[in-house]
Every structure is written in C-alpha cells, then in structure tokens.
Amino acid sequence: MTDALSAASARPGSTGSAGWLRLDTPQGAIFWLILLGGLLRLALAWALGYGNGESYYVATARFWALSYFDQPPLFLWLTHAMIGLGDAELWLRLPYVLMFGVSTWLMYRLGAVLFGAWAGVWAALLLNLSAVFFLSVGSWVQPDGPLFLFLLAAAYCTARVVVPEPETLSPGAAWGWWLAAGICFGLALLSKYHAVLIMAGLLLFLLTTPGRRRWLAHPAPWIAVVVAFAIFSPVLIWNAENQWVSFLFQSGRSSGGRFRFDWLGQNIGGQAIWLLPWIWLPMIWVFVVGLRRGPKDLRGWFLVSLAIIPIVLFTAVASWAKVGAHFHWQAPGYLMLFPLLGAATARWLEGGSRPARIWLKASAIATVVVLVVLGSHAATGWMRALPYLDREKDPTLEGLDWTDLRAAAQERGWFDRPGLFVVGTQWHQAGKIDVQLGDRLPVLCLCEDPRNLAFGWNQMDFAGHDAVIVGQDEFLKRFDERWRPYFASVEPQPDIIVHRGGRAELTLHVYTARGFKAPWPLPLPPNAPWEAAK
Question: Are 438 and 411 in contact (CB under 8 A)?
C-alpha cells in the first residue's frame, strides 16, 4: 500500500478528482486507510482484554456524576451511556474505534490545509503507524480518544483563521472559525486537562508571530475562550463541591525531589517506544527543524507552538517526579507534529527519495508485525513458552480479563446471596473485579488510593452486610490490620486461578467477610467521601 501511495503522490495530476475509491488519489487513500485501520482496531478491540486503566474507568463509569476524581467526565459519560445498552468489551470500545476514524480524517484535513493533500495523507498514515495512537487512543476506553479528536478539530479551526493573513478573512468567517475552535477546545477540556496546554501553545503562537498578534486585540478569540470554559464548567462545579480534589491530585503528581538523569532517560525512551522508534526519531527531527526556523515558517511554527508545551513540560517533570510508565502524557504534543512529519514525507517522496520510500514501507511492516506479535501474545500468552520471558515482568498481563472470577462467582453462589458485596483492595484490582462482577454485585474499593471509586457506592448502605474480599498477594499486605477489623469475622476461601490460553497466570486470594462495620476510612476529601454519593 505504501509503495502505491508514494508512487501516486509523486505523479503529476494524481491529486485530481479521480474518485474516492482509488488508492492513487488523496481521497481514496484516506478512505481505505480509515476503513482498513478501523477493521484492524475492531479486531484488536475484540481480541484483547481491558487494561488496568480501562477496567478502572469502566467501574467508574457505572456511576454518572457531573465530573470525576482524576479525569474530566466526557468519556465517562459516553461509557456510562454505552453500559446502559450493554457491557461487552467490543461494544464499550466501539465509540473509541469510530472516534479514531474521525481523528484520522481530521489529521488528513489539517495536513491538507497547511501543506497540501498528500501531506495530509502521510500525516494520517503515520498517525496510524504509531502504536500509542493506533492501539491505545484508537480503541481503548480512556479519555484520550475524545481528547485527540477535539484537539484536532480545534487545531483545524484555528489553522483556518490564524494561518491566512487576517485581512483576507471576512468578519463572519473569522467569528465562525474562532467560535468553532472555542467549542472544540471546550469539548477537549471536558475530555482531559491536557487540552489547556494546547490552548497555551496557541497563545504562544499568537504572541510570537508577527502579523498574528493583532488577534489578541480582537474579541472573537476571547469569546472563544469563554465558550470553552463554559463547556468545561461541570468540572469546575464538581471540584468546588469536592474541595478541588481533582486539581490537587493532578498537580500533586508533578511534585518530586532532586533531578534524576535515569528517570529522564527512562521517560524519553518510553516515549520513543510508545510512538515506535521509527516514527519518533524523524518526528523529533522535524520538531527540532521547526524550532530552528521559528516564526519565519508560519505553518510549521503554528504546529510547533501547539506541540512544545506538553512535550517539554512532561518530559521535564519526569526528571524529578516519579511518574512511572506515563509515557503518553506528551502525546497531545506529538499529535500536533504529525502534519509537519507528513509535509516532510511528501517532500521526500516528491523528490524521489529512495530512503524515504524504504523507511515508509519498513515502518508500515514493522508496526503491523509489532501489533500482531504483541496482540496475539496478549490474547493467548503464546510467548510464555519462550525461556527468556519473565512472567512477572510481562506487561501484557495487565490486559488479562479475570473471566475465571465470574465463573467462580457463579459456581460459588455469590450472585444468589442477597446483600452481598465485593471488596477490591486497590483501585485497578477493583476495576478488574468490577468488569466481571459489577453488573451483578456492588464492588467497593476499600483501599488507601481508591480515586474515582471512593465516590461511587455509599458505604453506609452496606453496614452489617457480608462481603467477599478478592485480591492478589501484593495488594493484601497487612490484611489483619487493614481489613479484618472492619468485619465481624473473616474466613479464607479457596483461591481462584485466572488462566490465559489454558495456562495459569494469576492467583486471586478470596475471603468471606461477615458483618461489615462501616465505614472503612477513605483518605479523600470530603472528610466523609461516602456522603458524595448522596
């Protein structure tokens, strides 16, 4: 496919209106990219289990709220609505697969407006060849799907108004594009807090670009900001009612100690792996070139300005704060660089660059191989037969659904016991449990870091009830001190073994706990978190 596209993009006249089904036209190339990419993401969405974060978000989404502890509400509202119609994994992931198809089209349109149709095609293709975007953003239940869709829509709207010379725009067009951008930025803010950094990048562009500062004296951009924060207002209202806990939590994640070169190196390496090195390296190259050219390259500087703050900020934070494997925090910035890389690719191919053709073809093959190999292993565990694979360090185990737990619950009669509830002892463990049992039994997270799950069920409704406590060794430490005192009696039950591909992978310890002495002390504001559910 990449050979055909690269040849087509280099031929004069290949960008004409030759039909949206032909691969040698930009319209046809995008049509097939969206169709084939969507089918592959649907297959992966069906084959792979929920990751830790997805399970936690599904558990959170069972409860509707104005906003939530660690994320704005838009994607959780969507998931809540989908749960109301069914809770199959493919069903809940379907909106995210469809949203990424729209994001692919928006990437094409943004690249086309800035650099030409084939530059837009390459930007969209490269977006789909990056693992974090194609797989994680493109199909998983998490805030990044709607975030990136609305960020691309906002970037497209602002490009239509800030890239042309201001005097060439009619007043109606200027107001229309700015208000559309405000709506899109508002929906992006309602998806994830990262959107404010892209808005700051737009301000940076306006401040540093001659001839564009005049927009700061025009009322339309400021009315757009008001519109954006009006859409974002449910988050502000919820936080005001809950001691600003969400903002405190997110800002607290950037605190740390002394500078650590090893943490910085690990984070940069993680970014490269998430994007895939064959995409990340040329992207960094065009980013650096864009920085060097500065405002004299208007279109390139527009993208670099939007991208720079999240990339630099979160990479810097990783040098002193223990952010773990959150290598995707820079992704909104990288998203804005794909049109720049697409434009460079178009130039290389139009110039007849053989290395560019080889790189593009090899990137497509390598990405598909990585997705197939890791995806098939995540689904079946076939690589466990390889002697050098350390099972305890296998990251794909996070995507293992605990289906054996549901079968055991049915066999042990949990669903038939009135008033029974289930206790998870860590936030993502409770999520894994909820995915299997949450449609039949209440699942409470009684732990020191319950996050959104502290604001779901009202603990006092379960005072005196019996429970089943489920967890792995790592999350049952100090059991006698932390959980046993809150029940009249606790008895161990037979373990539940979770399998993958016929192999035993995880051991879940199970306890029957009678007579819940509510409330279990939760660490989050308000002082009595269970009151938030009233």
Answer: no
Give the span between the Cα atoms of 267 and 51, in whole angstroms: 20
Count of residues making up the chain: 534
pLDDT digits 0-9 by tens, 32-83:
999 999 999 999 999 899 999 999 999 999 999 999 999 999 999 999 999 9
Question: CA 78 → CA 143, 231, 276, 443, 456, distances in Å?
Answer: 10, 16, 30, 21, 17
Question: How far, in Å, CA of 392 to CA of 40, rounded?
Answer: 29
Q: Please report, as a single letter, which amino acid is at residue 166.
A: P
Contact predicate 149/78, CB 8 Å? no
Token pair, residue 485, equals 């005192």
Gap between the Cα atoms of 332 and 326, Å rounded: 13
Distance, CA of 264 to CA of 148 (rounded, Å): 25
Token pair of 112, please?
A: 């086309």
Preceding amide of 519 cis, omega within 30: yes
Give, as one character, the DSSP assignment of residue 133.
I
Residue 276: Cβ-neighbour burial (10 angstroms; 0-12, 13-18, 19+): buried
Whole-structure pTM value: 0.92
Name the strand (E) or helix (H) holding 470. Answer: strand 467-471
Strands 421-424 and 443-445: parallel
Number of other CB atoms surrounding residue 281 within 10 Å: 12
Distance CA 477, CA 448 (A): 12
Rounded CA-CA distance 6/133 in Å is 22
Residue with tokens 């700015």: 178
- Identify whether the C-beta of residue 506 lies closer than 8 Å to the C-beta of residue 497: yes
